[in-house]
Design brief:
Elements: H1 9-17, H2 23-29, E1 43-50, H3 57-61, H4 74-85, E2 90-99, E3 104-113, E4 117-126, E5 129-144, E6 149-158, E7 162-169, E8 178-190, E9 202-216, E10 220-233, E11 247-260, E12 271-282, E13 289-304, E14 307-320, E15 329-331, E16 345-347, E17 349-368, H5 375-378, E18 379-396, E19 408-418, E20 424-432, E21 437-442
Parallel strand pairs: 1-3
Antiparallel strand pairs: 2-3, 4-5, 5-6, 6-7, 7-8, 8-9, 9-10, 10-11, 11-12, 12-13, 13-14, 14-17, 15-16, 17-18, 18-19, 19-20, 20-21
């Protein structure tokens, strides 16, 4: 059986979520209307959250713009639904209203929770390169204590083997919105540099880090971080490490700020995102002593309800002392220019940008797969979008001139599939500046 958004919650209730609700909640929902009201009709009197058997209510409420006393609007309901879904805790999010004493209404949020604690296999490719296959496994809890805390332990084999542990708490206290993140990792990283010379080599990284920050309102976040890193190369040569011993060991300090009003994190159609970071590696007077400044700005402007123009500008800049090959930046790994998707460009600094025109072909909708007996895995979300895009970017070393003619460029068209659990599958065709074409298959949104 398939279950889609309906104008009456009775259909939704009986076909999709009744097993997760109490009898009292089920009766309450029978008088709940899921067709958005006219924007000028009702104001929020109270908020009811249903279906959250494990997740604390405050986890959802702190993502919402609709509050008590606010006017209930279609745009506000759709935006808050996407923000709650972007938490990654639910397979389904619906929002409706129940009239109390007009013009007041109770805003009703109905969710279906994901499975939170599970072992998992790890199979994939590194740097979007099908030749860099890795595999492994781990265990994770994505909603520890029902507070959206994340516990993660993984063992990776194959390309770039690693052992990693992390813990993230998005709300240390209930009043001041402070958060904490810690991590410990050991990784063997195959050299990425094309300019290092000699036979290829491995970098062994050991890193420990702690980050503390504060969320200010719904959109602003600031943080500071500290850590320590050890990097050892399997075959030393000048430039592969700063130390002639072949091992670099240094503290890392950082600070950052982000502003995020995007509706749906994995594939935004509305809002803005800005992230600015400063990272200091080493201390003054020592062998390792440099700073990195990074900026990532994104904007998503709806033209019509189904058509959005999206733009991104990013940069990563270095200052201070010498940089080893492991501290360089690249186009062709995590950052790519479509049209030059598999080509690698290496430097110490980079800038780039993208434009996309995104058209919703199939509005994201939910289906219920009845043959799956576990409710947390039975609700799937699907959508389809078409896109026109253009990318450009360049990298350079300090001391070299910054030149516009050094930018590599590309443009093209694609079909993007929004899949369950926040995955995005992109199928695209791109041309570069000399009209050489390439097909692209990728498993994340371009930005």
């Amino acid at each position: 059986m398939r279950c889609t958004l309906t104008t009456s919650l009775l259909i939704v209730l009986t076909s999709c979520t009744h097993a997760q609700l109490s009898q009292a909640d089920s009766l309450f929902l029978l008088t709940t209307e899921f067709t958005p009201p006219p924007d000028s009709l009702f104001v929020v009197d109270s908020i009811a959250v249903l279906g959250n058997r494990k997740t604390k209510e405050h986890v959802l409420l702190r993502e919402m713009t609709l509050r008590e006393g606010n006017l209930i609007t279609r745009e506000g309901m759709e935006y808050d639904k996407s923000r709650i879904y972007s938490l990654g805790l639910f397979t389904r999010v619906e929002m409706g209203y129940r009239t109390t004493e007009p013009p007041k209404a109770t805003l009703v949020i109905l969710v279906s929770e994901r499975w939170y604690l599970y072992p998992f296999p790890l199979v994939g490719i590194k740097d979007r390169d099908w030749k860099k296959f890795y595999f492994g496994g781990g265990i994770t809890h994505q909603n520890f204590r029902g507070r959206n805390e994340k516990l993660y332990l993984a063992l990776i084999l194959g390309y770039d083997p690693a052992v990693m542990f992390s813990y993230k708490n998005p709300l240390i206290d209930g009043d001041n919105n402070y958060f904490l993140s810690t991590g410990l990792a050991w990784r063997v990283v195959r050299n990425r540099s094309l300019l290092a010379g000699g036979p290829n080599f491995d970098e062994r990284h050991f890193n420990v880090s702690v980050e503390v920050g504060k969320r200010i309102g719904i959109a602003h976040t600031v943080w500071v971080s500290g850590g320590y890193e050890i990097v050892k190369v399997s075959d030393y040569a000048a430039g592969r490490t700063i130390s002639s011993s072949g091992t670099d060991a240094f503290p890392i300090f950082g600070a950052g700020y982000s502003y995020d009003t995007r509706d749906l994190e994995e594939y935004a159609m509305y809002g803005s995102f800005v992230r600015a970071t400063l990272t200091k590696s080493g201390v003054p007077g020592q062998e390792i002593d440099f700073v990195r400044y990074a900026l990532d700005c994104r904007r998503f402007v709806p033209i019509t309800p189904r058509l959005t123009i999206a733009g991104r500008l990013f940069g990563d800049f270095a200052a201070g002392g010498l940089l080893a090959t492991y501290s360089r930046v690249y186009l062709g790994y995590s950052e790519r220019v479509r049209g030059h998707f598999s080509e690698i460009y290496e430097g110490e600094q980079q800038v780039g940008g993208s434009l996309e025109l995104r058209l919703t072909v199939l509005q994201p909708r939910y289906i219920t797969v009845d043959v799956i007996p576990i409710p947390e895995f039975a609700v799937w979300k699907f959508g389809i979008a078409a896109a026109l895009f253009a990318d450009a970017g360049t990298v350079w070393f300090r001391g070299q001139p910054f030149a516009l003619n050094s930018f590599v460029r590309g443009y093209g068209v694609g079909i993007h599939f929004l899949l369950p659990y926040g995955f995005v599958l992109r199928t695209e065709y791109a041309l570069n500046e000399v009209r050489r074409g390439e097909f692209i298959l990728d498993f994340t949104a371009a930005f």
